[in-house]
Amino acid sequence: MVEISGSSTSDGVVLDVNGDQTDPSTENTNGHSALNVPFLQKLLAELFGTYFLIFAGCMSVAVNLNFEKVVTLPGISMAWGLAVVVLAYSVGHISGAHFNPAVTLAFATCKRFPWRQVPAYIICQFAGATFAAGTIRLIFTGKQEQFVGTMPAGSDMQSFVVEFIITFYLMFVICGVATDSRAVGELAGVAVGSTILINVLIAGPISGASMNPARSLGPAIVSHKFKGLWIYIVSPILGAQAGAWVYNTVRYTDKSLREITKTASFLRK
Question: InterPro entries in the record, alphabetically (predicted)?
Fold first, then answer.
């Protein structure tokens, strides 16, 4: 979800001295466009990052269901938030740590991520989430009626609105701390993880606080439970798009790129 590196945007696209974007992940040593090793490393980072995020978050739900609610809602919220923090700092500098198709699509529509990489990223995110849900199902063999996915607790409209708002909030924060050079980028992981924690705490009992189509689709495929699944695909995507575009509206600055970069470098010292 976030890029920790101080010299690049959220998608790993480096800005050169003229302000033009160059994408190092799509050029090989001869300068030809190719699906080369760096891009494959990004895909692996997204695959494993999404796997561990979904495993940690959904595992906290499974443990809570199987051991007399020892984790509780605050504990589940912390599990999701802390998982995002540690993974952002682990692989954020490799893939941007999206772990979420809605985030990837929002970056792409705002021209902060190359469209040609979107399908591969989304496939890896869905695969990681599905493998994680499958792992949890294998761990809790014999208790297959338990579902660690997301379903509306109230009406579909209530869950749709809640998912839209919390995903908007999440994407707005991501854009603010991870793509704006004026922000203190080293704290991006903490800010995004804290946002996840807050969202799960306030929206978990209502909609499950997905904010992520992969997080909902993976467990749904493994458990064959698809009730209300459209909500968790459509609403997060719309919310992330709105959050990204609204931040782009308020982020305007009359400073030049060189001035912004100089200020950001000073703050990081």
Answer: Aquaporin-like, Aquaporin_transptr, MIP, MIP_CS
Q: Does domain 14-268 have CATH number 1.20.1080.10?
A: yes
Please name the residues in contact with 32: beta carbons below 8 A apart, sequence gap of 6 or more. none
pLDDT in tens, 218-264: 999 999 999 999 999 999 999 999 999 999 999 876 554 455 455 44
- CA–chain centroid gap for 56, Å, is 14
Residue from 50, 70, 205, 204 nearest 128 by CA: 50
Domain boundaries defined on the chain = 14-268
Please count the other Cβ atoms lying within 10 Å of the Cβ belonging to residue 202: 16
CA 215 to chain centre: 10
